[in-house]
Every structure is written in C-alpha cells, then in structure tokens.
Write a structure and sequence with these properties.
This protein is mostly beta strands. Helix content is 0%, strand content 50%. The protein has two domains: 29-142, Domain of unknown function (DUF427) (Metal Binding Protein, Guanine Nucleotide Exchange Factor, Chain A); 153-264, Beta Complex (Metal Binding Protein, Guanine Nucleotide Exchange Factor, Chain A), CATH 2.170.150.40.
C-alpha cells in the first residue's frame, strides 16, 4: 500500500512534494521477494507451500503474492476456459481447484506468456485469497491479504482533547486516547470505553478484517430519532502492532464529528 496508493512512488500520480519524476509508464510494476514461507489450504489440503514467493506491487492495487508453479499442488488443479487480459501484464489463464467434492472456480491464475515489461511473471501463479480456507505466514494464520512489508501501524498515547458529537449529542470525551497512525491513511483516535457513552451504542452484525490490526467489531449509534449504522468500531483482540487499542473505540461515519482540541480531526 505504501508504494502503490496515495502519494507512493508507484501510484499513478506521484506526489508533487518531490524533487524527482519517475521516467516510466504511469502504471508501474515492481517485483520483489517475499521474505517468509507462505502456505494456502483448501479442503484439508495444502495447495500452495513456498519459500520463494514474490510480491507484485502494481499502481493503485494491493500487492499480489505469486509463487513458482513448482510450489503448487498441480494435481489439485483443473484447466479452466476463463481468460482475462491486462494491458500491463498480458493474457491470464485460470485454473480451478478441486479437492474431493469441493471446488474453487478460477481461483488460480498465471501469465504463461507475459508482456516483455512483466517477463518475470513467467513460471509463476497467483491464488485468490478469499477462495482458500486459510493462509499462513510461516506458522501464523493471517487474514484479509498478505502483509505489505512497506506498510506499518504505530499506536501512541495522546493527551489531546478528543470529543465525539452526533446530532448535537456528546458521545465521547477523552484526554487519554490512543492515536493510531497507519501508512497511507488518516490518523484515527481510539478512545477508552470508559470515556464513551456506550449506552448510546448498539451491537452491529458488521465485522471487518485488517491484516495489520485484526478483526473489528462495529457498533451502531442510536438515540432519539438518530440512528447511525456502524458509527464506531473496536478490536477486541488486536494483532501485535495494534494491541494498545484493545478496550478502545474509534468513530467514523457520516453525521459523526470527531474534534481534536476543538478542531475537526484530519
């Protein structure tokens, strides 16, 4: 994400605050080694097991993991008639994963004859993350997508005055928030539950997965005639980089104002 989104050097539009310009195509590709063993499981079988994986960084897209064909269980793969064309990489061919009665249609793709500008893709294949039952980075199960080595999360305590207001109703007030800075995203303020009007929050069925922070649970803000769905979220069991936001809530939704020292949060 660092390299490919926002003002990153591989984004389509690099930042103006630089004393250089990239001499190359607007859509950029960067092929780099992924430094650890990675595995993908489906139907009780290990489809992919590699210590030679690569990450393809591509403008405006999340990094994509590729592995050598030799690191795939090709006996679990069936040819597919599905084809796609990428103007930057070439023509992709797909294969379906079959284990017993279970299938993952068109879950594996490769570029047998990639364009010369992406020639290193030859002999490698990629797998749709959501098509697999589980992924492992070394022996840790990971969720959402493989972690980008250029992406980081930092959490710091802050004594700045953070207030949350919705429809004129004070919702939270704290001078002991945790400030979470994440690459490519605006700062987020996580407030201790004790500083939040939790009586105004109702559980939501919404959940989201972040490979850097963990699984988030959402709350709906409801009082009087005001109902703001999924106005707040928390990480009950955050991953290591975000462990300091455990027991804290963050707010972001239309109709919710977050003020920091009296000014709207950036």
């Amino acid at each position: 994400m660092t390299l490919t989104f926002g003002g990153g050097p591989l984004a389509t539009r690099p930042p103006e605050t630089a004393n250089y310009r990239v001499d190359g195509p607007a859509h950029r590709l960067l092929w780099q080694t992924f430094p650890r063993r990675v595995r993908a499981l489906f139907g009780g079988e290990t489809l992919l097991d590699s210590t030679r994986a690569k990450l393809l960084h591509e403008s405006n897209l999340l990094p994509q993991l590729y592995v050598p064909e030799a690191d795939l269980r090709t006996d679990l793969l069936e040819p597919s008639g599905h084809r796609t064309h990428c103007p930057f990489k070439g023509d992709a061919r797909y294969r379906t994963v079959r284990v017993g009665e279970r299938t993952a249609e068109d879950a594996v793709w490769s570029y047998p004859e990639p364009l010369d500008s992406a020639r290193w893709l030859a002999g490698h294949a990629a797998v749709y993350w959501e098509a697999m039952d589980a992924w492992f980075d070394e022996d840790e199960e990971v969720f959402g997508h493989v972690r980008d080595p250029y992406h980081r999360v930092d959490v710091r305590p802050t004594a700045r005055h953070v207030q949350v207001v919705a429809a004129g109703q004070p919702v939270a007030d704290s001078t002991r928030a945790m400030l979470l800075s994440e690459t490519g995203l605006p700062n987020r303020y996580y407030l201790p539950a004790a500083d939040v009007r939790t009586d105004l929050l109702e559980p939501s069925a919404t959940h989201s997965v972040c490979p850097y922070k963990g699984t988030a649970d959402y709350r709906t803000l409801a009082f009087g005639d005001t109902v703001i769905k999924d106005a707040a979220w928390s990480y009950p069991e955050p991953l290591d980089d975000a462990r300091r936001v455990a027991g804290h809530l963050c707010f972001l939704a239309d109709g919710v104002d977050v003020l920091v020292d009296g000014e709207p949060a950036g």
